[in-house]
Request: fold
Amino acid sequence: MKKKILVLLALVLCFSLLASCNSSGGTSNSPSASPSASPSAEPSSPPPSSAAPETSAPPPSSAAPETSAPPPASPAPSASTSSPAPAPSNFKWNGKKEVWSVLPTTQAEGLVTINDSMGAEMQALGWTYAKKDAEGNPGNQVTFIETAIDSGTVGAIMCAAMAVDLLKDVVQKALDAGIIVVYLGAYPTDYQINGCVYTSYALTGYYAIEMIEAWAKQNNPPKDSKGVPVALDVYDDILDGQYRSNAFRDRTAESDILYVYNTNVTYGDNAMNKGYAWAENMMTANPDLRIFVCYEPECMNGVVSFLNDYCDSKGIDKKEFCVVNCYQDDSTFAEYDKAKADPSSTVYKGYVTYGDSLEATGQALATIIKGATDGSWPFNQIYWDSIHSFPTNFDFVGEWKMGDPNPGEKYQY
Reply:
């Protein structure tokens, strides 16, 4: 399970930007939807003894230095449906009713579910639907699109782009051939496509900090001369990571009660053990620290695992801690349910995620394709996922849908 879903996370939502593309994003589901769509984290358990705390912990008497600021990035398009669309294009659909999903891998269950939902919508309209597996190679996506152009039978391509820049020339050839091009989880900033489904990562980060601030105001955790200390798990190596991490850092700095005590990076291999060691270092450095914000679920699992054990060993009520994360997986749901049932059973306090369901995301892709056939979908218009916040036993509302004002936009730099 873990390996399959990590493929989805790394190759669909993030790989495009690890390959130096412009942006990436993704789609997930609400608690009632299938957990297989989410990036996976193993159930919380202490790491082996070899996963010792990192040697460098921040000094107890002062805040640890923050990570260096991310390099400037091109701002993302507006998340409002009232935003003007780009200048009209001379694109004309070629009339061919065959759609290809050019995927990084067909081994990721959630990704396939999204695309099969799109395919079902198109098949109901008489289209032929085919999935193409790039086997983790961005160059294979270029080859598939070239093959689609040469076939003379393809009228639409849905690409979960691994390397947006690499696709620029071949996508233009596809458009020139009258082939509709739609992206999932990425959008180009210097060339056009017919449209894409994308997520406001900055808004997930914004709501995560709004959530911990609401919790802090309702639960009065320990504070020092600077305010209530907060430890942030950030990731700046992809553009979306910068957006979410900017929101983590900046919204905390804007708070009237919170301040950034420490930033750390756990994303990638061994994130759970890194999260465990990070939490251990933080509690050694500052026993009054109570709030941790995790970039994604794997870090959360490590942090929660250590802090639950820490509370048991120190006789501290776990409801005194607040751990939240962005995105979710099956273990997130398990901690969430546990916390809702008994706030003293876990340090976990909630999460922020995006998307209504995997099937709905596929249907949104189909809407773009259908709209490109008759001109009803504005060329290059983005379909933005909804954002949802799930606090446990405290009051907070953080919900957003396409067309609403986006308070996270200012962190997209």
In short: Residues 1-85 have pLDDT under 50 and may be disordered.
